[in-house]
Amino acid sequence: MDKSLKRAFLLIKLTFLSLFVATFFTVKIALAGHTPPVDSDYYEKGLRYDQTVASQKELLASGYHFESNLLSDPNSLKVGKQNILIFLKKGEEPIRGADLEFRLERSATDSFNKILHLKEVSAGKYSGELDIPFAESWRIQISAKTESGTLQKTTQIKVLH
Fold first, then answer.
1. Source organism's superkingdom (predicted)?
2. pTM reported for the whole predicted model
Protein backbone atom coordinates (compact mmCIF):
# COMPACT_ATOMS: atom_id res chain seq x y z
CA MET A 1 0.00 0.00 0.00
CA ASP A 2 1.26 3.45 -0.84
CA LYS A 3 2.52 5.71 1.93
CA SER A 4 0.07 8.55 1.11
CA LEU A 5 -2.86 6.10 1.20
CA LYS A 6 -1.77 4.91 4.66
CA ARG A 7 -1.68 8.55 5.84
CA ALA A 8 -5.15 9.18 4.42
CA PHE A 9 -6.60 6.14 6.26
CA LEU A 10 -4.86 7.19 9.47
CA LEU A 11 -6.30 10.70 9.14
CA ILE A 12 -9.80 9.27 8.58
CA LYS A 13 -9.43 6.99 11.63
CA LEU A 14 -8.26 9.90 13.82
CA THR A 15 -11.13 12.07 12.59
CA PHE A 16 -13.73 9.43 13.49
CA LEU A 17 -12.06 8.77 16.84
CA SER A 18 -12.12 12.50 17.71
CA LEU A 19 -15.81 12.69 16.69
CA PHE A 20 -16.67 9.77 19.01
CA VAL A 21 -14.71 11.32 21.90
CA ALA A 22 -16.36 14.74 21.34
CA THR A 23 -19.82 13.11 21.21
CA PHE A 24 -19.12 11.20 24.43
CA PHE A 25 -18.10 14.36 26.31
CA THR A 26 -21.04 16.33 24.89
CA VAL A 27 -23.52 13.73 26.11
CA LYS A 28 -21.76 13.50 29.49
CA ILE A 29 -21.95 17.28 30.01
CA ALA A 30 -25.58 17.44 28.84
CA LEU A 31 -26.68 14.71 31.24
CA ALA A 32 -24.70 16.10 34.19
CA GLY A 33 -26.21 19.59 33.89
CA HIS A 34 -29.85 18.65 33.46
CA THR A 35 -32.28 20.86 35.35
CA PRO A 36 -35.90 19.87 35.81
CA PRO A 37 -38.76 22.28 35.01
CA VAL A 38 -38.66 25.34 37.28
CA ASP A 39 -42.32 24.97 38.23
CA SER A 40 -43.55 21.54 39.16
CA ASP A 41 -47.09 22.49 38.15
CA TYR A 42 -46.21 24.08 34.78
CA TYR A 43 -48.92 22.10 32.98
CA GLU A 44 -51.68 23.30 35.31
CA LYS A 45 -50.41 26.88 34.98
CA GLY A 46 -50.66 26.57 31.22
CA LEU A 47 -54.24 25.34 31.47
CA ARG A 48 -55.16 28.30 33.69
CA TYR A 49 -53.32 30.86 31.53
CA ASP A 50 -56.41 32.63 30.13
CA GLN A 51 -58.00 32.79 33.58
CA THR A 52 -54.79 34.21 35.08
CA VAL A 53 -54.46 36.89 32.39
CA ALA A 54 -58.11 37.93 32.83
CA SER A 55 -57.66 38.13 36.61
CA GLN A 56 -54.49 40.20 36.19
CA LYS A 57 -56.26 42.66 33.84
CA GLU A 58 -59.16 42.93 36.29
CA LEU A 59 -56.85 43.78 39.20
CA LEU A 60 -54.94 46.37 37.16
CA ALA A 61 -58.22 47.96 35.98
CA SER A 62 -59.43 48.27 39.57
CA GLY A 63 -56.23 50.15 40.55
CA TYR A 64 -53.98 47.50 42.13
CA HIS A 65 -50.29 48.23 41.63
CA PHE A 66 -46.82 47.86 43.13
CA GLU A 67 -44.63 50.77 44.17
CA SER A 68 -40.91 50.30 44.73
CA ASN A 69 -37.63 51.95 43.86
CA LEU A 70 -36.78 48.66 42.07
CA LEU A 71 -39.52 49.38 39.52
CA SER A 72 -38.82 53.10 39.11
CA ASP A 73 -35.00 52.71 39.05
CA PRO A 74 -33.98 49.31 37.63
CA ASN A 75 -30.32 49.95 38.57
CA SER A 76 -31.00 50.41 42.30
CA LEU A 77 -29.87 46.93 43.40
CA LYS A 78 -26.25 46.27 44.32
CA VAL A 79 -24.23 43.09 44.89
CA GLY A 80 -24.54 41.69 48.43
CA LYS A 81 -27.19 41.76 51.16
CA GLN A 82 -29.83 44.46 51.02
CA ASN A 83 -33.33 45.19 52.17
CA ILE A 84 -36.14 44.98 49.58
CA LEU A 85 -39.12 47.28 50.15
CA ILE A 86 -42.34 46.99 48.10
CA PHE A 87 -45.67 48.75 48.55
CA LEU A 88 -48.92 47.13 47.41
CA LYS A 89 -51.76 49.57 46.81
CA LYS A 90 -55.18 49.86 45.28
CA GLY A 91 -55.23 53.41 44.04
CA GLU A 92 -53.67 55.22 47.02
CA GLU A 93 -55.04 52.78 49.61
CA PRO A 94 -52.49 50.28 51.03
CA ILE A 95 -53.45 46.60 50.80
CA ARG A 96 -53.08 44.62 54.03
CA GLY A 97 -52.64 40.89 54.49
CA ALA A 98 -51.37 39.99 51.03
CA ASP A 99 -48.86 37.21 50.42
CA LEU A 100 -45.94 38.80 48.53
CA GLU A 101 -43.24 36.81 46.82
CA PHE A 102 -40.10 38.26 45.23
CA ARG A 103 -38.24 36.15 42.66
CA LEU A 104 -34.75 36.92 41.40
CA GLU A 105 -33.88 34.84 38.33
CA ARG A 106 -31.09 34.35 35.82
CA SER A 107 -32.29 33.53 32.34
CA ALA A 108 -29.52 31.06 31.50
CA THR A 109 -29.72 28.82 34.56
CA ASP A 110 -31.78 28.30 37.68
CA SER A 111 -28.68 27.75 39.89
CA PHE A 112 -28.77 31.33 41.20
CA ASN A 113 -32.55 31.82 41.39
CA LYS A 114 -33.83 33.09 44.72
CA ILE A 115 -37.36 33.24 46.11
CA LEU A 116 -38.02 35.67 48.93
CA HIS A 117 -41.30 35.76 50.85
CA LEU A 118 -41.81 39.36 51.96
CA LYS A 119 -43.23 40.17 55.38
CA GLU A 120 -45.72 42.97 56.00
CA VAL A 121 -44.02 45.56 58.21
CA SER A 122 -46.89 48.08 58.12
CA ALA A 123 -50.10 48.63 56.13
CA GLY A 124 -49.29 47.78 52.50
CA LYS A 125 -45.52 47.88 53.11
CA TYR A 126 -43.68 44.59 52.57
CA SER A 127 -40.01 43.95 53.25
CA GLY A 128 -37.36 41.23 53.13
CA GLU A 129 -33.60 40.75 52.92
CA LEU A 130 -32.05 39.62 49.64
CA ASP A 131 -28.48 38.52 48.93
CA ILE A 132 -27.37 39.01 45.32
CA PRO A 133 -24.22 37.00 44.50
CA PHE A 134 -22.84 38.97 41.53
CA ALA A 135 -23.42 41.90 39.19
CA GLU A 136 -25.27 40.99 36.00
CA SER A 137 -28.62 41.30 34.29
CA TRP A 138 -31.40 39.66 36.35
CA ARG A 139 -35.13 39.19 35.94
CA ILE A 140 -37.32 40.03 38.91
CA GLN A 141 -40.89 38.93 39.41
CA ILE A 142 -43.07 40.34 42.16
CA SER A 143 -46.23 38.38 42.91
CA ALA A 144 -48.98 39.34 45.36
CA LYS A 145 -51.84 37.03 46.31
CA THR A 146 -54.81 38.95 47.69
CA GLU A 147 -58.44 38.11 48.33
CA SER A 148 -59.25 39.66 44.93
CA GLY A 149 -56.72 37.57 42.97
CA THR A 150 -53.04 37.44 42.07
CA LEU A 151 -51.11 40.45 40.78
CA GLN A 152 -47.73 39.95 39.11
CA LYS A 153 -45.08 42.30 37.79
CA THR A 154 -42.01 41.11 35.89
CA THR A 155 -39.11 43.29 34.79
CA GLN A 156 -35.44 43.09 33.82
CA ILE A 157 -32.89 44.83 36.05
CA LYS A 158 -29.14 45.41 35.97
CA VAL A 159 -27.34 44.76 39.26
CA LEU A 160 -24.28 46.94 39.79
CA HIS A 161 -21.15 46.38 41.90
1. Bacteria
2. 0.71
